[in-house]
Amino acid sequence: MRNSAIVLAIPLLVLLATGEASAHAFLDHAEPRVGNTVATAPREVTLWFTQKLEPAFSTITVTNSAGQRVDTGKARVSGSQMTIGLRPGGAGTYHVTWRVLSVDTHTTDGSFSFQVGK
Amino acid sequence: MDSVGNDVHNSLIVVRAVHFTATAILSGSLVFWTVVAEPILRSSEAAIIVWLQTRRAAWISLAIAAVSGGFWVLLQAAAMSGLPFGDALTADVMSTVVNETQFGLVSEIRFALAIILAGCLAYDRLLWVRGLALISALGLIAALAWTGHAGSTVGEAGILHLTADVLHLIFAATWMGGLVSLARLLAAARRSRTDAWALVALSTTQRFSTLALISVGSIVATGIINAWILVGSLHALIITDYGRLLMLKVTLFAAMLMIAVANRFWLTPRLALPPGSEPQLKALRQLMRNSMIEIVLGLMIFSIVGLLGMLHPAIHFENL
Q1: What integer pLDDT is reported at residue B230 of this predicted model?
Q2: Are A105 and B76 inside 8 Å of each other by CB?
Q3: Model's pTM, two decimal places?
Q4: Residues A23, B315: C-beta atoms closer than 8 Å
């Protein structure tokens, strides 16, 4: 029974070890960077997530300071990366709102802003 | 999450647990027949009885897996679209889910495997057909890895995670389904009380013990890899719902393992006592009882699995 006790303890003991990994589709980073200021309005916004995405159920919308949509519509998805084009716009605060479905069938959403020309 | 979303979420947990359990018993029963029973029984009378038991268990679990799998796809369509259950059941939404998502593609493949398996069970006279049934059943359980957390992990860790999860599912099914088959075989031996069946009970229990040992070792090893990827640290294990549920799952698994050790080293040797004698019959009864307790613990574990797959893994909260 002593041997079996050791066997039982193994999974719990190994769980004590720390690891570097991630799971679920959460925003890893974006371009333009979250909260940063860029000199001119970008042509597109790209978001990188921690998991692979389902294109059919993943969306991004980008609005300007006046609350008007400035994105071109459908986002392009490649693996864990999602990009959306922007129409030409001026200076101000841009809001990016995303809702994505990872291939493990879980939906996550969020938003961030970046500044143009200030 | 609104009340409609909660209903879909809760239904998904139940449906997933039922589907995982049925699929595990399905493939585990066929593994038990192929690896444990058939090599011992060959063409004996007992072989016919045990195969009929196996085929019956496979049919019932396949039917439950098919119905629960169908509900799973419908509920998942509602969850993915964000629509109420009734509104999501449109051709447009269903077509998008089935044809444009990984979950849908895997579901289509698994549906095809279920059809092949049903055909094999219906025309089971030939050995190669039984072999194809086993391969289809293993595919059915293994493909579940692509519907869960392992299917979305990026990079090299994704390959490791998928490999570990496939093996974890197959060996968990082997143990769980094997226990169900063993309990039914022991019940037949107890009813018979003949020397031949006593020998069958002893031989199959010993052989299953070896298979269970291999399964347990694989479950532990692959479980550690999965936990490393999805939990990541002791802190995350303790502070998150995911981590606490995982600890409960490991505790139940440990209880199953202790019973299995008692079966192997204490009860199985007693099956070699004179057939029909009180100590031998008592050992048979206790083995059956212990197998049933293990099965109940296994069902509890599959219920937890149904819930774990719906939660955000602990590693996410650790990285925030």
Answers
A1: 85
A2: yes
A3: 0.87
A4: yes
Cα gap B319→B232, rounded to integer Å:
10
Mean pLDDT for the stretch of residues B90-96: 94
Would you say B28 and B174 are in contact if contact means Cβ atoms under 8 Å apart? yes
**Cβ–Cβ gap A23/B233 under 8 Å:** no
Q: In 10 A of CB B6, how many CB atoms? A: 10
For residue A16, list chain B residues with Cβ-Cβ distance below 8 A.
234
Amino acid identity for residue B253 in this structure: F
B-chain CB neighbours of A103 within 8 Å are 101-103, 151-152
ipTM reported for the complex surpasses 0.90: no
CB neighbour list of residue B134: distance below 8 Å, 6 or more residues apart: B27, B30, B31, B33, B34
Express as a percent the part of chain B with pLDDT over 90. 72
Tokens of A8: 């039982």
Residues with Cβ within 8 Å of B285's Cβ and at least 6 positions away in sequence, in order, are B190
Taking CB atoms and an 8 Å cut-off, how many pairs form between chains A and B? 115
- Residue A28: enclosing H or E segment and its boundaries? strand A27-31
Q: Is the peptide bond before B279 cis (omega within 30 degrees of 0)?
A: no
CB-based burial label for A10 (10 Å; 0-12, 13-18, 19+): middle
Q: Please name the amino acid found at residue A26.
A: F
Q: Alpha-carbon distance B1 to B184, whole Å? A: 44
Does A15 sit within 8 Å of B227, measured CB to CB? yes
Q: Can you state the angle between helices B45-81 and B155-192, rounded to 10 degrees?
A: 140
Say which residue, A29 or A19, is predicted with more confidence.
Answer: A29
Q: At CA B288, angle to CA B285 and CA B292, rounded to 5?
A: 140
Structure tokens given for A90: 């001026």
**Crossing angle of the two packed helices B3-31 and B45-81, in degrees rounded to 10:** 160
Please state, in angstroms and rounded to a whole number, the distance separating the CA atoms of residues B23 and A79.
Answer: 30
Q: Distance between the two ends of chain A, CA-based, in angstroms?
A: 70
